[in-house]
Amino acid sequence: MTTFDDREKAFENKFQHDEDLLFRIRARRDRLAGEWAADLMGLSGADAEAYARQIVDTDIATPGPHDIRDKLSADLHARGVDISDHRVEKQMAHFLDIARQQVTQS
């Protein structure tokens, strides 16, 4: 192998690592957001756990930057929780910071 091939392989490995890390951070953020929303909706135990898993699955299955925010807002409004999209976004940003810390420290 040449030096160029080595550098190319190293770049590919770093890219793969970074993408994996980003995926784990987003999944953790989604779980935290799902748990938060479940609490606001009065869900607990297995129902709250199932809802948090559903939020993670939604982010994986649905492309777009606002898919989770839209789902959380719609679900919260359907349960009668008075909350703005902006508040949901702020909470998600907060959970992203927490998730980044949790994932990078583990």
Automatic annotation (TrEMBL):
One Pfam family named in its UniProt record: ATPaseInh_sub_z
Matches recorded under InterPro entries: ATPase_inh_sub_z, ATPase_inh_sub_z_sf
Superkingdom to which the source organism belongs: Bacteria
Protein name: Aldolase
Organism: Azospirillum palustre
Lineage of the organism: Bacteria, Pseudomonadati, Pseudomonadota, Alphaproteobacteria, Rhodospirillales
